[in-house]
């Protein structure tokens, strides 16, 4: 068996089933859209049994790798933060739960992408010293947590259009998107703020998200 | 359409009552001209999805309006401020969708909150939690039914606010808990729920007097 298949066997069978169903739906939907995207190579790729990362349209792979990069960043942030002791006792359950979700998102996206997954980036949560006390001062930690969660919400929203027609993959992205929003709301609440800015959350472009995230990538 | 006309007929028969009017009622029914006022068929495609969202936002807006008109006994300043903002958001969502739908919008729905004890903080916030989580799952499941990218982004801009509300309501019930960060609604793969209209509408039906049908939505 290929390496991709061994990676797939490690992720949850039901998720693989859902993605596989999504891939079939995507194929039929693309086929229905006629000449727009249903090129012969794509049709062959979608119909094959190769690993998902290779058979997904490159636009979908790009979106999922972009999402994976953000999830790596978040997972590393909570892994370090939860170990550091910066989180006061009364909030530990919240940040432990958020960290578990971010790690689950990494696992899920890596499972979908298989060998097409990008590697985890090197991180610097002090952003070159700008947030030097991030793992010592809870208010700094909380503020960065809120920033990452709000950024994640805006990033997934900004990419939803690029996943149209991908069936279950779009749905999975939406199911992550709303989890990030739950996190953002609770982290804001811990900072004695409202869980939102207004009645509508704004999307952010990939470039805008990367510009915000780059200071934390070493 | 079958269930719409059947429900309409039942209402009509109940309201007219006298046996002598039955023939008249029967004669009027086949053209469906009368059923629009008594029932709401969501419609096809993107219009159907937007009407579906509009129905749910009508329900939420009506609920929070009732909550704030009948404040429960122990309503603290914090409860009141958060519930007021959520009410205003739901009204903004409702009006946005109504505006987007224009003449294709379903009529205003009649609601039934007789199952809610508006004098009880627990009953009100527990119901709010159910509505918000149902809304999140509904938008998550409806995303892949949308064809117009602008509508997908609009739905995305609303769903993350619903998720933020859900976390804030849970935080009011169980402050700073893992549940407020999503544990219990988010599965171990880190995913929120996604439900189809055929799963959501029956859950909302006990609170909506007007029969709502979705003949062509899954």
Strand and helix map with partners:
The complex is a heterodimer of chains A (218) and B (218).
Chain A: H1 3-10, H2 13-32, H3 40-47, H4 52-55, H5 58-84, H6 92-113, H7 138-159, H8 168-190, H9 206-213
Chain B: H1 2-16, H2 22-28, E1 40-41, H3 45-69, H4 77-101, H5 121-142, H6 149-173, H7 197-204, E2 212-213
Give me the count of strands of chain B: 2
Mean of the pLDDT scores of chain A? Answer: 82
Envelope shape of chain B:
globular
User: Helix/strand/pairing class of chain A, anyone?
Assistant: mainly alpha
CATH class category of the domain at 46-105 and 112-197 in chain B: Mainly Alpha
Binned, the helix content of chain A reads 55-70%
Q: Oligomerization state of this entry?
A: heterodimer
CATH architectural grouping of chain A: Up-down Bundle
Q: Rg of chain A from C-alpha positions?
A: 18 Å
The CATH homologous superfamily name of chain A equals Ferritin, core subunit, four-helix bundle
Give the helix tally of chain A.
9
InterPro entries (chain A): Ferritin-like_SF
Protein name (chain A): Ferritin-like domain-containing protein
Organism (chain B): Devosia aurantiaca
Protein name (chain B): Ferritin-like domain-containing protein
How would you summarize this macromolecular structure in one to three sentences?
Chain A is mostly helical and 218 residues long.
């Amino acid at each position: 068996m290929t390496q991709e298949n061994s990676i797939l066997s490690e992720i949850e069978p039901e998720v693989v089933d859902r993605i596989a169903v999504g891939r079939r739906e995507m194929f039929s939907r693309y086929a229905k859209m006629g000449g727009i995207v249903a090129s012969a190579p794509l049709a062959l790729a979608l119909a094959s049994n190769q690993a998902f990362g290779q058979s997904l349209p490159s636009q979908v792979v790009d979106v999922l790798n972009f999402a994976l990069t953000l999830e790596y960043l978040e997972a590393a942030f909570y892994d370090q933060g939860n170990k550091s002791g910066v989180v006061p006792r009364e909030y530990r359950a919240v940040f432990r739960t958020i960290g578990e979700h971010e790690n689950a998102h990494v696992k899920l996206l890596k499972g979908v992408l298989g060998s097409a997954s990008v590697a985890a980036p090197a991180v610097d949560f002090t952003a070159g010293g700008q947030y030097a006390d991030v793992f010592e001062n809870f208010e700094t930690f909380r503020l960065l947590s809120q920033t990452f969660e709000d950024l994640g919400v805006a990033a997934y929203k900004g990419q939803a259009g690029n996943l149209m027609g991908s069936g279950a993959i779009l749905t999975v992205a939406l199911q992550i998107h709303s989890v990030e929003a739950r996190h953002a709301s609770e982290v804001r609440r811990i900072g004695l703020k409202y869980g939102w800015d207004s009645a509508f959350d704004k999307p952010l472009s990939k470039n805008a998200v990367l510009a915000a995230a780059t200071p934390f990538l070493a | 359409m079958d269930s719409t006309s059947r429900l309409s007929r039942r209402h009509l028969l109940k309201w007219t009552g006298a046996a002598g009017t039955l023939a008249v009622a029967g004669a009027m029914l086949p053209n469906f001209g009368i059923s629009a006022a008594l029932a709401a068929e969501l419609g096809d495609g993107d219009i159907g999805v937007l009407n579906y969202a509009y129905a749910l936002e009508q329900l939420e807006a009506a609920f929070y309006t009732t909550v704030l008109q009948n404040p429960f006994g122990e309503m603290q300043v914090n409860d009141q401020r958060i519930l007021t903002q959520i009410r205003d958001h739901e009204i903004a969502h409702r009006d946005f969708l109504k505006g987007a739908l224009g003449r294709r919008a379903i009529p205003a729905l009649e609601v039934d909150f007789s199952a809610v004890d508006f004098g009880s903080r627990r009953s009100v916030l527990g119901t709010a939690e159910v509505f918000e989580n149902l809304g999140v799952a509904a938008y998550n499941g409806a995303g892949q039914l949308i064809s117009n990218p602008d509508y997908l982004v609009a739905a995305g801009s609303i769903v993350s606010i619903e998720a933020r509300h859900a976390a804030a309501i849970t935080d009011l019930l169980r402050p700073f808990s893992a549940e407020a960060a999503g544990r219990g609604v988010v599965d171990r793969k880190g995913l929120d729920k996604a439900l189809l209209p055929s799963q959501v509408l029956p859950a909302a039906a006990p609170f909506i007097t007007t029969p709502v049908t979705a003949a062509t939505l899954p």
